[in-house]
Amino acid sequence: MTESPRIVIADPVDPAALRLLAGGPCTVIDASTDPGGLPTQIRAAWGLVVRSRTKVTDALLSQAPALRVVARAGVGVDNVDLAAANFRKVRVVNAPTAATTSVAELTVTLGLLLVRDLFGAIQSTKGGDWKRGMHGAELYGKTVGLVGYGRIGREVARRLKAFGASVLAFDPLLPRSPDDTPLVPLEELLARSEVVSLHAALTPENRHLLNTERLSQMRRGAYVINVARGALIDEEALLVALNSGQVAGAALDVFETEPPTRTSLLAHPKVIATPHLGAATPEAQHRAGVQVAEELLRLLRGEEPLYLVNPEVPARP
Q1: What class, spelled out in words, does domain 6-98+282-300 have in CATH?
Q2: Which of 138, 187, 213, 258 is catalytic?
Q3: What CA–CA distances, in Å, run from 98 to 74, 154, 219?
Q4: Is 276 labeled as catalytic in the residue annotation?
Q5: pLDDT digits (tens, 9 = 90+) for 71-96
Q6: Pick the catalytic residue: 116, 151, 276, 298?
Q7: What is the rounded CA–CA span in Å between residue 177 and residue 220?
Q8: Can you give the pLDDT at residue 132?
Q9: What would the pLDDT profile of 34-73 be if each residue is shown by its tens digit?
Q10: What is the domain partition of the chain in residue ranges?
Q11: Within 13 Å and on the Cβ side, how many CA atoms surround 170?
């Protein structure tokens, strides 16, 4: 009897995903509690499910000669060596819509905290102070620039407009705006925006997109939000801009190195730091797990996936 295809779960996923896969024509191996044993578990694997903990390197792929698909239960695939996957003809799928709402809501939350200068007020009040008086400003009437205008950027814009903010966007991949948000050059966005929020995927070309030069192009006293990828910002340049007052405050959910090592940035009084939790809601994780499980079931049925990251890799038996 031919053994059914093996799908190895490398990182914890929502139980609904496991239930879906268990009902499919496959054998599910949950290796999420034993990361050290993964190389052994994937030797005969047809599919591999990961979140962000597992790094799918060429060395790992070399130990899985039967592997046909890597399913990333999340949006970003920077923990997957796509060049190695392409070379080994391994298809990669993800769940690009799973965290859209959660990340958009976090973005707006961080923007409100920054503009109203609430983080310091919360800390001081909890510490026993009672500092009243003028504190921060309204989001209403402010111009917010979104760098990257994909699914998450558009959801952020929709929420910001409900607050009465004006929204600009920059996205070199879009030939025209999909809605009524103006698409403008990056230099114009930086010059006009009172809040700049990053929603771009990280590529070799946009690493340190916000560097010393571009931070200097921003309106003096503007705010920066990054819920995308840490390396989009040159953290040393950001620290200099915060100290000079060029940037009035920054809210960072992501960092160049995670956990972050620049303690001077974390300790800065004008920095709100969170531990990469944009997608860390039960709703987002449920959607991510279910979406990749459905993708794997489509592939097992011989259908094309909806969210194929590397379409240059064709299907194979």
Answers
A1: alpha beta
A2: 258
A3: 7, 15, 34
A4: yes
A5: 999 988 989 999 999 999 999 999 99
A6: 276
A7: 27
A8: 87
A9: 888 899 999 999 999 999 899 999 999 999 999 999 999 9
A10: 6-98+282-300, 100-273
A11: 20
**Closest to 10 in 3D by CA, of 100, 82, 79:** 79
User: Catalytic: 283?
Assistant: no
Q: What is the pLDDT of residue 2?
A: 59
Pairwise CA distance, residues 198 & 107, whole Å? 9
Considering the candidates 6, 199, 219, 229, report the single residue annotated as catalytic: 229
For 100-273, CATH number out of 3.40.50.720, 3.10.20.310, 3.30.565.10, 3.30.1380.10 equals 3.40.50.720
Residue spans of alpha helices (H) in the chain: 15-22, 38-41, 58-61, 82-87, 100-115, 118-126, 151-162, 186-192, 212-217, 235-244, 263-266, 282-300
* Residue 194 designated active-site: no
Output the six-digit token pair for 80: 């997957």
- pLDDT, average across residues 19-33: 95
